[in-house]
Amino acid sequence: MKPPLSSSSSSSSVLRKPRHLSPYLFSLLAFIVFVAILYGEDVACVFNQQLQLGSDSPRYFTGPFFGVEKKREKALPFAIGKTDPSCDIFSGRWVYDESRPLYEESDCPYIQPQLTCLEHGRPETNYQHWRWQPNGCDLPRFNATLMLETLRGKRMMFVGDSLNRGQYVSMVCLLHKLIPEDGKSMETFDSLTVFTAKEYNATIEFYWAPFILESNSDNAVIHRVSDRIVRKGSINKHGKHWKGVDIMVFNTYLWWMTGLKMKILRGSFDDEAKDIMELSTEDAYRMAMRSMLRWVRINMDRKKTRVFFTSMSPTHAKSGDWGGVPGRNCYNETRMIEDPNYWGSDSRKSIMEVIGDVFRKSKFPVTFLNITQLSLYRKDAHTSIYKKQWSPLTPEQIANPVSYADCTHWCLPGLQDTWNELLFAKLFYP
């Protein structure tokens, strides 16, 4: 539309009456401008989201030092609801709860003697009664019936080291009482342990692979190797046993913490002359994470399967970290750490940063179970001296229990049941 002429014009000495927009035309133009502004912002918003997310971006979950943002609100397999996006279930506090534990130690025959603390003389049970309470929301109650029905005709597998085996045993203990005695079994085949729920045609499995990749520590029984070597690009050595799994739970951390550079084998362990290079722990760990995610992308169906990764399980071997008596550890500790910002020196933040960097680039949705911070508070929950010992104790050890206290593994029932409550929450309410 041309602008109205002014009341005087240099091109004409004739005065003209100014022209006015009709009320109807003015209203129409105002409406068009309003709609353009309103929908223009919506379109811009949608366009910007598409630029940020992409059509194939996976969904991840945040946590301290993880550095990965949620990227997509798309329904994941097995989900029956969703968690309030404003609630981080991994951030919260421990609340004493008399209704816990979720099962009794004596009622679960599948707990290894290295984790049965009461049987081996632990004098108090307070460590069994703590419940994790997220800030601003509640964890859904663990429903064993729902879990078993979901596993009907399916395989669930935990892959990793002895910490992951503890979480695996916890899951079996949470479920097995719903299954009659003649309807369940547990068998071990080298690195693979299989719990079968016969009526459900379901298995819950554990596969020993402390580095995920092939290593010289892969013997499930004899694996105490000080000079650890990991073979580059060797995930299929173990991965062939994982195919067909519907719910996968990975972990790997503790075995990388040698304090030295990691030895990486290029070639085969069968080679007479071995080509070994050394990498920093972070670079070696990054290599393993990339291999794991590549295997997942190639071998798992994102429309039918779920993959979880459990973050590093902390140790409490240095009492100085929490202001305790120097030279002590978790031995005789029956109270948790109350400092909400506590972070122990044995938990390497640089590893969490590697996970964040690598997982952020993955095209397969991996659900991150950030159990590290909430477990850091629990110096009271370790097996300490209350376990079956690998070898007879010496008189010197007996005189100094701190010297042989296990501040790495956790009593069952206990902390690792909470890990599975978090797994349950993210499986069904991501």
From TrEMBL:
Lineage: superkingdom: Eukaryota
UniProt-annotated location(s): Membrane
Transmembrane segments: 21-40
InterPro entries in the cross-refs: TBL (IPR029962), TBL_C (IPR026057), TBL_N (IPR025846)
Keyword Mitochondrion: no
Extent of the signal sequence: none
Keywords linked to the UniProt accession: Membrane, Signal-anchor, Transmembrane, Transmembrane helix
One annotated GO molecular function: O-acetyltransferase activity
Name of the protein this chain belongs to: Trichome birefringence-like N-terminal domain-containing protein
